[in-house]
Each structure stands twice: as C-alpha cells, then as structure tokens.
Specification:
single chain; alpha/beta; two-stranded parallel ribbon; about 40% helix
Length: about 170
C-alpha cells in the first residue's frame, strides 16, 4: 500500500497532526483515528488539492492561525507548495511562505534531516507488531493481506506520538 506522510511542527517543537496521502482514487470507508487526516491521489502525491487540505485542516488549526497572528511556513520548491491557490490560502491565513531554494531541503528542513528516520523506525516497529500478531489476516494461499488503511493510520499516529518534543 503506497502512502506518503506529511509531517510538520512549529518552531517551539509542537507537532501538528499528520496527513497521509494514499495512492488510490477514492477516500477509504475505513474509520480514520482522531488526530490524523487522510487524502487520496491517483499517484500518491501531494498535489494542489492535498496542500489545500493540509492548509485548511492542519495549518489553520495552528495556534497562530487560530489567533489570527502572522506566521511563517517554511516549505521547499515542490510545485504544490508554490501554486497561486496555495499562496492565496496562505495569505488568507496570515501565513508568509518561505520557500527553500532547490537542493537545500536536506540541510534546512529539520524533519527531513533528523525526524523522518526516527518516525520510520517507529513505523517499522508498529508493522512488526502487526505482522507477528496471531490475528493477522492471511489469504487462502497463505500470503499476508495488506494492512487496512485504519491500521496504517494508527501506526502513523502511534509513531508520531513516540517522536518526543522536537526541540
């Protein structure tokens, strides 16, 4: 099951809820745990719609946005981050976009540099617990079925929770 996870934190280390993007065409009917957001894209990418959803559901709930204070959102030059619709919504949310020049994401994006590897380790532990559980689902041919979307959402939620304060 192909998926991408969009993570963010504020400068004080407060973690924002994750957004999972699944490679599929329709939203799942699974129950999605509270505190996590799900989006779908036919190629599993963060396109304009996904960025709009993230700004509306995650970023707009950030304390600065709720208090209508100006804030700064640092992102890279990925196309969805710099579209006119993204800029308009950011302006509406009193958010200034700071775009990292190409080739510098690995040096300037804190989550890319240090947190993502930690999260992937916690995700692997969650998957290992699931695969080793006696209740796992197996096909008649003896192959392990894919985990449900709600399983994956729980893994992400638990893993993100295990990543302690980011400062």
């Amino acid at each position: 099951m192909r998926r991408r996870i969009t993570l963010a934190c504020s400068a004080d280390g407060t973690k924002l809820p994750p957004l999972l993007i699944f490679k599929r065409k329709t939203l799942p009917k699974d129950v999605i745990p509270h505190g996590i957001y799900v989006h779908v894209h036919s190629k599993g990418w963060m396109a304009g719609e996904g960025m709009q959803l993230w700004l509306e559901k995650v970023w707009s709930k950030h304390p600065s946005c709720l208090l209508k204070k100006p804030s700064l959102l640092v992102c890279d030059q990925f196309k969805a981050h710099v579209t006119e619709s993204t800029k308009r919504l950011a302006t509406k949310l009193k958010t200034h976009l700071a775009v990292i020049p190409g080739g510098l994401t690995s040096q300037l994006q804190y989550l890319d540099v240090s947190v993502n590897k930690l999260l992937k380790g916690f995700m692997h532990e969650e998957w290992a617990k699931w695969i080793e559980a006696p209740t796992r689902h197996v096909t008649p041919a003896g192959r392990v079925k894919l985990p449900s979307i709600s399983n994956v959402c729980e893994w992400v939620k638990n893993s993100w929770h295990q990543v302690k304060r980011l400062l």
